[in-house]
């Protein structure tokens, strides 16, 4: 199997990996002929899963893939390692800080930027690695030599049989969809709510209102956004007919773990638009679009299961 | 000692202290007529750092001691040990004070006054020195609006007189580089920021390019390293690149190196890296108008199958000499280096970067006689001590009190070198009469040849009488040299049988 691509958009790639890195220590990346999928489906305490799909052209150029399994290559790797490798492609002056820093920054090389970043599947010292080669041309102002940095990220190549078992979680048809307000604002609110309780209730109403609430013995806090846009779905006529009969004031709620919601909200760096789908008392599915709404490069899908507290029924 | 720094000089001084604090916990201050030097050594003795400030760096600089007739007396008659002062002090204490000042930005002048505690009459500031038993460093910051902040810090006696091993050949393998380049190189290597991470890098110096590799890197989830990084940079990016033996690989820890790079970057001075051989410590030098910096970092030799350094023919010849005399060379408490003839793929620690001296090299300038050095190849980086000095324990752990006790015992121990001491302690049967001892320099020369004890004794002038130890011993003169006939440090047998 062979794989090689030039990474054009390092920043977006970094941001996506940052979200994933906050969730899990390992993730699966699946390269197909047209897309790159990033999958985080390890069972964690919060149960958050991420399934993302990014068109290859949004991130890469000169993309070449070849494998026996219908030109699909699946690897498991540590997103943090890959992220650190990418960081040196656009280093920031405080590149040593491990906090959430977005990829762009100033350093002697960033002003020139990497002239080329090549990602390749390789075998080094008997181990399969994803090798990133970053070439800086033109030197750092002192000399005229070019600098080549090469990072090798250890990977596990997954067999097609193993990939078969990796499937998106089963969810019923969502009850309601809504466009979320900017995730940064949601994040601020949720951070405050995190101090108060473990379970957060998200309630979406048909009129476009979004309500985040926390209800404990000591305190009840609720935050309401109104007039949120609801995405127009191109559904079949049957669905449309159904909608008309439905009560406009109805709202659907789902209870989530606050921590899980916060983990999802860490994707605020990359999102332009986010659509939330609520399956009442079951789960919440969030579609985060990368890039402009018009020219969507990819989507990150978050599955957050509901926390059943027994008081819904 | 009294020194005054104006605010322009205080900033670089504080930066230097920050760098020193990364190297070790204590700094040793050595003051002489011409310069003030600050040095620090890390706990494992694998990194050494020295800043030497010319007296012009200070607005005012004066050195006086109560039994010192004055700066006008000729210093040439004195050994440096007598005019130099040495104290040691906790770096963090000094740094906290000065760094705090940086936040204020209001200090206009900073006075350093050292008050020696031993003498009953102290200098001008006697009335403020209530505690006369210890030396104190008085730091007086004159700030704006007439505010004067006075800090009193405890000074200890400089416990060890560590001095860096001077590299054999200064000109070999010299690389001048702007610290910004080095900083950029290191930035590319991702390191975890946990306190226990101790990053290391392996540098390979080739003919036209330098490659830097990480040893272990990245996050370790399954006990395996997840990320390996390698950077290649052309030698054009270095200001000067003069490496004679290529390819040469060295590895070293980054913590101290980063501190030096950060300092040099802040001061915008070029850094000169010297590496005589992969087994020798890395020596970094930098200099501004008033200050000379020297950093020594011990290196790990990385020998791989791919790159076998090709030493020059002269060095190979020297290697052969060493391997033959290695067996009989005394161990002086240092690590013995394997000869290059026995190369294996391994990473080995190089020699320690410092060794003890007894104060003859107070300010870090070690001028040592090179007579014996030629006998050792570059593989062993410890030159023999000067002919006139005869330290007893080179890597001594003796405190000052212990040294004084030994001196007072009158056994003449401090005049012996290791072999004589061994003879003194262990040898039973040799009752020798040392009349008319040969000159010390000749002793030294004989020692250098690595001859056995017996040979040396035989070649001495005077008759040697061997007697049974059981029959009692007469009084013997000192085994090494007699400084003056009056000293007459005789010793008597411990056990009268």
Automatic annotation (TrEMBL), chain A:
PANTHER family: CHECKPOINT PROTEIN, MITOTIC AND DNA DAMAGE CHECKPOINT PROTEIN HUS1. SUPFAM superfamilies: DNA clamp. It is found in: Nucleus. InterPro entries: DNA_clamp_sf (IPR046938), HUS1 (IPR016580), HUS1/Mec3 (IPR007150). Belongs to the HUS1 family. It comes from the Eukaryota. The keyword Nucleus applies. GO terms for cellular component: checkpoint clamp complex; nucleolus; site of double-strand break. Keywords: Nucleus. GO terms for biological process: double-strand break repair via homologous recombination; meiotic DNA integrity checkpoint signaling; mitotic DNA replication checkpoint signaling; mitotic intra-S DNA damage checkpoint signaling; nucleotide-excision repair; telomere maintenance. This is Checkpoint protein.
UniProtKB/TrEMBL annotation, chain B:
Residues 302-388, 424-497 are annotated as: Disordered. One of its GO terms (cellular component) is checkpoint clamp complex. Gene3D superfamilies: 3.70.10.10. Residues 319-328, 369-388 have a biased composition (Low complexity). Transmembrane segments: none annotated. Residues 453-463, 484-497 have a biased composition (Basic and acidic residues). It holds the Pfam family Rad9. Residues 342-351 have a biased composition (Basic residues). Residues 424-433 have a biased composition (Acidic residues). GO terms for biological process: cellular response to ionizing radiation; DNA repair; DNA replication checkpoint signaling; mitotic intra-S DNA damage checkpoint signaling. This is Rad9-domain-containing protein.
């Amino acid at each position: 199997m062979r794989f090689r691509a030039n990474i054009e958009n390092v920043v977006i790639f970094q941001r996506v990996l940052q979200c994933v890195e906050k969730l899990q220590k390992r993730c699966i990346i699946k390269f197909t002929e047209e897309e790159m999928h990033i999958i985080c489906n390890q069972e964690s305490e919060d149960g958050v899963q991420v399934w993302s799909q990014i068109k290859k052209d949004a991130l890469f150029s000169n993309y070449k893939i070849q494998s026996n399994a219908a030109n699909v290559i699946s690897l498991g790797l540590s997103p943090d390692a890959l992220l650190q490798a990418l960081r040196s492609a656009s280093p920031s002056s405080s590149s040593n800080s491990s906090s959430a820093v977005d990829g762009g920054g100033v350093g002697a090389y960033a002003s020139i930027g990497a002239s080329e970043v090549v990602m390749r599947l390789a075998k080094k010292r008997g181990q399969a690695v994803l090798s990133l080669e970053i070439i800086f041309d033109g030197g750092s102002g002192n000399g005229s030599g070019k600098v080549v940095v090469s990072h090798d990220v250890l990977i596990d190549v997954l067999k097609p049989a193993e990939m078969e078992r990796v499937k998106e979680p089963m969810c019923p048809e969502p009850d309601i969809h809504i466009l979320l307000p900017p995730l940064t604002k949601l994040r601020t609110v949720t951070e405050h709510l995190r101090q108060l309780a473990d379970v957060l209730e998200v309630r979406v109403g048909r009129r476009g209102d979004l309500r985040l609430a926390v209800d404990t013995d000591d305190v009840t806090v609720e935050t309401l956004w109104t007039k949120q846009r609801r995405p127009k779905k191109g559904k079949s006529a049957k669905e449309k007919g159904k909608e008309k009969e439905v009560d406009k004031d109805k709202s659907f709620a789902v209870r989530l773990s606050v921590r899980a919601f916060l983990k999802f909200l860490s994707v605020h760096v990359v999102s332009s638009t986010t659509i939330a789908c609520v399956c009442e008392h079951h789960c919440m599915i969030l579609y985060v679009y990368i890039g402009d709404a018009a020219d969507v490069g990819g989507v990150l899908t978050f599955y957050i299961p509901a926390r059943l507290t027994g008081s819904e029924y | 000692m009294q020194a005054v720094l104006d605010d322009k000089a205080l900033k670089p001084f504080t930066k230097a202290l920050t760098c020193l604090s990364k190297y070790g916990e204590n700094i040793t201050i050595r003051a002489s007529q011409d310069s003030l030097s600050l040095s620090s050594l890390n706990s494992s003795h694998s990194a050494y750092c020295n800043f030497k400030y010319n007296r012009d760096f200070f607005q005012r600089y004066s050195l006086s001691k109560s039994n010192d007739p004055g700066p006008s007396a000729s210093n040439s008659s004195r050994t440096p040990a007598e005019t130099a002062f040495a104290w040691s002090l906790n770096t963090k204490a000094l740094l906290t004070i000065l760094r705090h000042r940086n936040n204020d930005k209001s200090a206009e002048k900073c006075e350093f006054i050292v008050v020696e505690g031993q003498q009953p009459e102290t200098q001008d500031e006697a009335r403020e020195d209530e505690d006369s038993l210890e030396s104190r460093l008085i730091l007086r910051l004159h700030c704006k609006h007439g505010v004067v902040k006075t800090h009193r810090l405890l000074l200890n006696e400089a416990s060890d007189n560590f001095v860096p091993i001077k590299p054999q050949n200064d000109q070999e393998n010299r690389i001048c580089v702007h610290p910004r380049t080095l900083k950029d190189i290191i930035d590319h290597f991702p390191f975890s920021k946990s306190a226990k991470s101790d990053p290391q890098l392996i540098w390979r110096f080739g003919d036209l390019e330098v490659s830097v590799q990480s040893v272990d890197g990245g996050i370790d989830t399954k006990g395996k390293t997840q990320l390996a990084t390698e950077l290649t940079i052309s030698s054009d990016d270095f200001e000067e690149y003069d490496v004679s033996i290529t390819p040469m690989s060295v590895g070293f820890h980054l913590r101290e190196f980063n501190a030096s790079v950060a300092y040099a970057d802040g001061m915008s001075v070029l850094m000169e890296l010297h590496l005589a051989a992969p087994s020798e410590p890395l020596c970094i030098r930098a200099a501004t108008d008033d200050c000379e910096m020297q950093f020594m970092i011990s290196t790990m030799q990385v020998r791989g199958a791919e790159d076998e350094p090709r030493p020059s023919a002269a060095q190979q010849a020297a290697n052969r000499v060493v391997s033959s005399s290695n067996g009989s060379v005394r161990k002086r408490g240092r690590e013995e280096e394997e000869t290059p003839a026995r190369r294996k793929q391994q990473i080995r620690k190089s020699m320690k970067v410092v060794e003890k001296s007894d104060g003859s090299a107070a300010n870090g300038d070690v001028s040592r006689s090179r007579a014996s050095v030629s006998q050792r190849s570059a593989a062993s980086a410890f030159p023999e001590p000067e002919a006139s000095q005869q330290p007893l324990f080179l890597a001594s752990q003796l405190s000052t009190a212990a040294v004084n006790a030994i001196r007072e015992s009158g056994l003449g121990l401090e005049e012996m070198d290791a072999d004589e001491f061994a003879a003194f302690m262990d040898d039973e049967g040799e009752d020798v009469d040392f009349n008319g001892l040969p000159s010390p320099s000749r002793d030294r020369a004989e020692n250098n040849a690595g001859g056995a004890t017996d040979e040396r004794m035989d070649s001495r002038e005077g008759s040697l009488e061997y007697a049974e130890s059981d029959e009692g011993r007469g009084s013997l003169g000192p085994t090494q040299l007699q400084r003056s006939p009056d000293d007459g440090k005789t010793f008597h047998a411990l056990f009268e049988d």
